[in-house]
Design a protein that fits this description.
This protein is α/β, with parallel strands linked by helices and about 350 residues long. The chain has 2 domains: about 1-185, HUPs (Rossmann fold), CATH 3.40.50.620; about 200-340, TPP-binding domain (Rossmann fold). The chain contains 8 helices and 15 strands. The chain has helices spanning about 15-30, 75-90, 100-115, 220-235, 240-245, 275-280, 300, 310-325; strands at about 1-10, 35-40, 60-65, 95, 115-120, 125, 130-135, 140-150, 155, 175, 210-215, 235-240, 265-270, 285-290, 305-310. The strands form 3 sheets. Strands 5-9-4-1-2-3-10 form a 7-stranded parallel sheet, sandwiched between helices. A hairpin with a 2-residue loop joins strand 6 and strand 7. The chain is globular and about 60 Å long.
């Protein structure tokens, strides 16, 4: 029987990881395949909560590959651990979530095992023995349909493109795989790790609402308004490349072709002109609201709702309306809990 493996280089399973599992399950039903979820982490301690839960999905089994050498992230060691998993399980299709680490590992793993690779996948289906893949191209202006007839196949699925797996992984004893990690194979060294605070308490990848700012804000002070609006909406704050390059906000906030690709339910672009490189990163958004003083800004061509005006007048008015709407309903600001924005 064919196998679809979801490879998660993490011990934390959040919505993005569950979407990858959901994509694998959807394909497996059409393709008559087993689904395996493989977790690669420094220790199994953080994923003990997945053991012994009530069995809600008997078609998903769990593999665990843990090794203390994986504590300090090294792409060489994670690729090696992934290759050992693939050699043991021999899946036809390997699915990754579109996380930063996964996107670094996937192409290297594909090369090592002689597999084809497709990223930014938004649709999967079976057609006989083949797997049909749909992904956006030309900045989201068109879709490419690829047909894979030879395997193995490595895929990275776009966030919010697939329904997340809501059940629990199979109860009972997971497959604990003993892996070998050779420190001498490491060609890069982790010198320092800097942990940045998540924008507005919610990661961009997980956020259902994103408030994003660009050069039109005029400086870092404008992002304080955006952060307050994001808190009231239970969302996250992002930025254009121009704002990040100017040093107004951390580079991890960048959205676009060279930043993060997001797919929120609502994307509010404030002071962003709408260059094609930025539009690539938001093509998966369900609704785009643009606020800009220039009525000819390209962002209005892709926006579902456009507001021509100064953000310093528009944003405070939106916040005031949200405060009025929520007055008396709760003492806490909506979105104060990260889960509310997911």
């Amino acid at each position: 029987m064919r196998t679809v493996m979801v490879l998660l280089p993490t011990s934390r399973i959040e919505r993005t990881e569950r979407e990858a599992i959901g994509a694998a399950r959807a394909l497996s039903r059409e393709w008559s395949a087993n689904v395996q979820v493989a977790l690669i982490a420094p220790t199994a301690e953080g994923i003990e909560g997945l053991r012994g839960r009530t069995e809600a999905s008997s078609d998903v089994s769990l593999w665990i590959a843990a090794h203390p050498q994986l504590e300090a992230y090294s792409p060489e060691l994670y690729v090696s651990a992934s290759e050992q998993l693939i050699t043991r399980a021999r899946p036809e299709v390997i699915v990754f979530p579109s996380r930063t680490i996964a996107l670094e590992i996937a192409p290297r793993l594909a090369y090592r095992i002689g597999a084809a690779l497709a990223t930014d996948v938004i649709e999967l289906r079976a057609e006989g023995e083949a797997v049909v893949i749909t992904k956006p191209v030309y900045g989201g202006k068109a879709h490419a349909v690829l047909v894979a007839q030879r395997f193995p196949l490595v895929l990275c699925v776009r966030p919010r493109a697939f329904d997340p797996f809501e059940g629990e992984l199979r109860a009972g004893t997971p497959h604990d795989l003993q892996i070998a990690c050779d420190p001498s194979s490491v060609r890069t060294q982790l010198v320092q790790r800097i942990q940045e605070d998540a924008a507005a308490g919610v990661s961009l990848e997980e956020a259902r609402v994103i408030v994003s700012g660009g050069r039109g804000l005029g400086g870092p002070e404008g992002f304080r308004l955006l952060e307050e609006l994001a808190r009231w909406l239970g969302g996250a704050v992002g930025a254009s490349r121009a704002a990040c390059d100017a040093g107004w906000v951390p580079a991890s906030w960048q959205i676009g072709q060279t930043g993060k690709k997001v797919a929120p339910d609502l994307y509010i672009a404030v002071g962003i002109s709408g260059a094609s490189q930025h539009i690539v990163g938001i093509s998966g958004a369900k609704c785009i609201v643009a606020i800009n003083t220039d009525p000819k800004a390209p962002i209005f061509k892709v926006a579902d709702l456009g507001i021509v005006g100064d953000y310093r007048a528009v944003i405070p008015a939106l916040i005031a309306e949200l405060k009025r709407t929520h007055a008396g309903s709760s003492g806490d600001r909506p979105g104060s809990s990260p889960e509310e924005g997911r």
